[in-house]
Amino acid sequence: MILPFQNAVQKPDKLALTPDRRFWVNDIDDVHHSYEGAGDIYDFYAHVKYLALRENFPDLSPEDIRAIGRKSYDETGDGLLGFTRLAKEWNLISAEREDFFREGLFRSFHREKFQYAKENNMALLNPHTRTIELLEQLRGHVQHGILTQGCLTNWVRPVLEARGTWHFFTKHACLDLHDVGYETKKLSPRPIQMAMAALGATPAQTVFLEDSVDNLKMAKNFNPDILTVLISRKNPVPEFEPFIDIHMPDLATFLEFATTRYPVLKPALRNELA
Question: Which residue has the higher pLDDT, 202 or 63?
Answer without folding.
Answer: 202
